[in-house]
Amino acid sequence: MSSGVLIIGAGQAAAQLCISLRQGGFADAIRVVGDEPYLPYQRPPLSKEFLKERPAADTLYFRQEKFWADNNITLDLGVPVASVDVAKKRVTLADGREFDCGILFFATGTRARDLPLPGINLPGVFSLRKIDDVRKIRPALDEAKSIAIVGAGYIGLEVAAVMRQEGRAAIVVEAEDRVMKRVAGVELSAYFEKLHRERGVDIRLGARLAGIEGEGKATGLALTSGDKIAADVVLVATGARANDDLAAAAGIACDNGISVDHFARASVPDVYAAGDCANFFSQRYGRNIRLECVQNAIEQAKAAANAILGKPKVYDPVPWFWSDQYEIKLQITGLLDGYDLAELVGNPSEGKFSIDYRKGGKLIAVDSVNDGRAHMMGRKRIAAELPEKV
Questions:
Q1: Cβ atoms of residues 305 and 17 within 8 Å
Q2: Could you give the dihedral angle defined by the CA atoms of residues 348, 354, 357 and 361, in that order, rounded to the nearest 10 degrees?
Q3: Taking a C-beta distance cutoff of 8 angstroms, is the pair 112, 121 a contact?
Q4: What are the pLDDT tens digits along the chain (390 aa)?
Q5: Contacts for 33 with CB less than 8 Å, ≥ 6 apart
Q6: 3 state DSSP class of 364
Q7: Domain 327-385: CATH superfamily, name plus number
């Protein structure tokens, strides 16, 4: 039986595990299997700089090819994993190859949430999760005068900002009663709604999608209200679901992601998971959480590496996220669901402010707009008020 580590997925968590293991003195084999043909790369720029500036794919790489070779890390890219046998510690790829390992690490990330609606598979309908998604949508956008975006979360609003900066019409359709409702408080949602409307984005709140219009190609949206929205391109940005199918099929416990403990260990011995695909219990917040952010992918992968190296350290983070829209940098730290008090610090009209969110007197989250200091202090303050309890 091999004593090496096999990593399924080639994103942020996979790259960080490789780096941390080698830095920690791990000398056994490391193999990374990814279903995309690219070296491990960063994804947040896909809906921002990469979409707008159209650089080469290698500008997103965490490390160039020489790094992986120099550190004796084998990359099998462009081929998905077909199945996992945890009893035999064996992974079978779609091309029939099989690999054994001592330790298995899932870094499978997420995929766009399915919308079972009429017309969803028409040409001209796109999602935005991978490099190839950008390469598909970018030529269509170059020919388009208007884009309809389904979903007013980070990706939807970031793309809307890029489209307006390019002079294209952007219509955002959101089923909720405010933008970024899942991640932002009422005041922050109002600020970003105003920002986008002032920049010319047509935002339709409380609007539910009935289907995609078009014959042979998407020509717009049909809403349940009966309204029609014409557009040259449709982007579906309604969130993501964890890629936990392989793990679940292998008998590994999953619940909205692969269930892991505070050391990134899954329910089966010698199996770990980290990043967007992993779900764990936060003592700080008193509930299970699955975090879709760079910070979590990095730090949880470090926790997995520590455990593999025999130096386990509890992972219970104060999470943080960011979004760039126009010249505005939004930074969020903590989780604000269930807050009972929001306190505004600064003046939104000046384009620099923060909002503290409290629950039962405890600081649980801080939203910061163009205020890096408030963000950094917020992370420290939340950590002090919501200490690790493990």
A1: yes
A2: -120
A3: no
A4: 357 999 999 999 999 999 999 999 999 999 999 999 999 999 999 999 999 999 999 999 999 999 999 999 999 999 999 999 999 999 999 999 999 999 999 999 999 998 899 999 999 999 999 999 999 999 999 999 999 999 999 999 999 999 999 999 999 999 999 999 989 999 999 999 999 999 999 999 999 999 999 999 999 999 999 999 999 999 999 999 999 999 999 999 999 999 999 999 999 999 999 999 999 999 999 999 999 999 999 999 999 999 999 999 999 999 999 999 999 999 999 999 899 999 999 999 999 999 999 999 999 999 999 999 999 999 999 999 998 765
A5: 6, 7, 8, 9, 10, 76, 77, 79, 81, 91, 93, 99
A6: strand
A7: FAD/NAD-linked reductase, C-terminal dimerisation domain (3.30.390.30)
DSSP 45-112: GGGTHHHHH---GGGGBSS-HHHHHHTTEEEEES--EEEEETTTTEEEETTS-EEE-SEEEE---EEE
Does this chain's domain 114-238 share its CATH topology with 327-385?
no
Alpha helices in the chain (DSSP H): 12-23, 49-53, 65-70, 131-142, 154-165, 186-198, 245-249, 294-308, 372-385
Write out the CATH class of domain 5-111+241-308.
alpha beta
Residues 6+ apart with CB under 8 A from 310: none
What value does the CA radius of gyration of the chain take, rounded to a whole number of Å?
22
Which tokens hold the place of 337?
């669901």
Place of tokens 């099929």: 249
- Structural domain spans, the chain: 5-111+241-308, 114-238, 327-385
Only one residue has tokens 């084998």, namely 74
* Residue 22 token pair: 């080698």
Q: CATH code for 114-238?
A: 3.50.50.60
37's tokens: 């043909």
Q: Three-state SS for 164?
A: helix
Do 245 and 261 form a contact (C-beta atoms < 8 A)? no
Q: Are strands 90-93 and 73-77 parallel, antiparallel or unpaired?
A: unpaired
Map residue 366 onto helix, strand or coil.
strand
The structure tokens listed for 380 are 């420290």
Residue 146 is inside which H or E element, if any?
strand 146-150
